[in-house]
Design goal:
9-stranded mixed sheet; 8-stranded parallel β-barrel; Lyase, Ornithine Decarboxylase, Chain A, domain 1; 14 helices; globular; alpha/beta
Length: 440
């Protein structure tokens, strides 16, 4: 599907053309042409009639644009991008990123296996687990991927078993707080992630006593970086500790680049980060004595804006204080608003020119599952299609079967055509692994 001969020329044209766009909210989101909302040139009504609702729809052109923006921002260094597949792990998406030149960032052995099934070279996969067993790490070693360890206890066990025969990356916690919700900030002092910079002496002793070959350093401050200088300060901390590691081949700065979620929202200035960090990195390499690779692991940045979640309005319910729009989905399909208090811009795509009214959009789960309070939407009626934007990251991957509801279908729009990449579940999927073994 993604390997036809026209793809190369399509993406070359796309990347050339993308430089003429401005980075406004409307550009990042749905297209409105002749009063019809479209995704990748396909009217949303065509997609919902063909695949029903609710559905996740992803546009590869947006993914390619985001990938190219990041590569361009850091083109002054030997930059390698590893797509963080926890954000969107459909195998077709992984194949697409491999197709355009990306590596893969994984956090579980299951993601490693999926990446290998998608065709990634093990050398282009980094495995960065947290609080897993040594047995799982052994499985990753067996697959030949780059191991990244963020725990002194596990590092000591790893060194005792493998010595210097298997190079390993070490994840450092710089104790720098990124922007965004506390649940997605991973570099602060109370985080479970990484080995503290204040444990460097202990880390040195473990590496020396077990004869461990450290070939990379890693950090990830968390998602939604707003202050470029905070990120650069964390980078300086990482540069400072490299004096303890003479055999490095790469430094991995994770990701966390923020994308806009609402009109007039802020986003990480990728060009500024790219310019400043590239300059710092190249100066560091001269001091270090050789050129290293500069790695990033973007997930949300690459796929968030490519995804739209479409649902149908079941009911309009008016109470003494609120007008609710109740849809055929819930927190079982998109949990981020309830889990992180995250914002997803919501549009009534069935009535683009309608009068704006105030609604609270809720789901059908037997639990409070509010997607957005007091949102201005074009007047909504039952049967309308509601679109949640920026739904490409941590939408389907965090979905569940709560209330025994089926998980939705996934559709990929590529070069003007739509492809079903995951079937909607049915009752057999719900019951498949249940064992009716007891007689009553």
């Amino acid at each position: 599907m993604l390997d036809n001969s026209s793809s190369y020329y399509y993406f070359k044209l796309l990347r050339l053309y993308s430089h003429f766009f401005t980075t406004t909210f409307d550009y990042f989101m749905l297209e409105l042409k002749n009063d019809v909302y479209q995704i990748g040139g396909i009217p949303i009504s065509v997609l919902t009639e063909k695949y029903d609702t609710p559905i996740y729809v992803y546009d590869t052109a947006i993914m390619a644009r985001q990938y190219d923006q990041l590569k361009t921002a850091f083109n002054g260094a030997n930059t390698k991008i590893k797509f963080a597949c926890k954000a969107l792990n459909n195998i077709n998406i992984l194949k697409f990123f491999k197709h355009i030149g990306s590596g893969l960032d994984t956090v579980s052995i299951q993601e490693v296996w999926t990446g290998l099934r998608a065709g990634f070279d093990p050398k282009n996969i980094i495995y960065t687990p947290n609080c897993v067993s040594m047995e799982e790490i052994d499985m990753a070693v067996k697959e030949g991927v780059q191991i990244n360890i963020d725990n002194l206890s596990i590092l000591e066990q790893f060194g005792h078993k493998y010595g210097n025969t298997v190079p390993v990356c070490v994840r450092i916690n710089p104790h720098v707080m990124a922007g965004g919700n506390i649940n997605i900030s991973t570099g602060h002092i109370d985080s479970k992630f990484g080995i503290s910079i204040y444990q460097m002496r202990h880390l040195e002793r473990v590496i020396k006593s077990e004869n461990i070959c450290v070939n990379g350093l890693h950090m990830h401050t968390g998602s939604d970086i707003l202050d470029v200088d905070v990120f650069l300060r964390a980078a300086d901390i990482l540069f400072e500790v490299t004096e303890h590691f003479p055999d490095l081949t790469f430094i991995d700065f994770g990701s966390g680049f923020k994308v806009p979620y609402k009109p007039d929202d802020y986003a990480t200035d990728i060009e500024e980060v790219g310019s400043k960090l590239t300059e710092k990195f190249n100066a560091f390499c001269k001091t270090y004595g050789r050129d290293l690779e500069l790695w990033f692991e973007p997930g949300k940045f690459l796929v968030s804006q490519s995804g739209t979640f479409l649902a149908k309005v079941n009911v309009i319910k008016q109470t003494t204080a609120t007008v609710f729009v109740g849809i055929d989905s819930g927190l079982n399909h998109l949990i981020r608003p309830m889990l992180y208090n995250s914002y997803h811009h919501i549009i009534n795509v069935s009535n683009p020119m309608g009068k704006q009214r105030l609604y609270t959009v809720v789901g059908y789960i037997c639990e409070t599952d509010t997607f957005g309070w007091d949102r201005k939407l074009s007047e909504v009626k039952e049967g309308d299609i509601i679109a949640f934007q920026n739904a490409g990251a941590y939408g389907f991957t965090m979905s569940s079967n709560y209330n025994s509801r089926f998980r939705p279908a996934e559709v990929l729009v590529h070069e003007g055509k739509d492809y079903l990449i995951r079937k909607r579940e049915d009752l057999e999927d719900i019951l498949r692994n249940q064992v009716e073994s007891v007689t009553f």
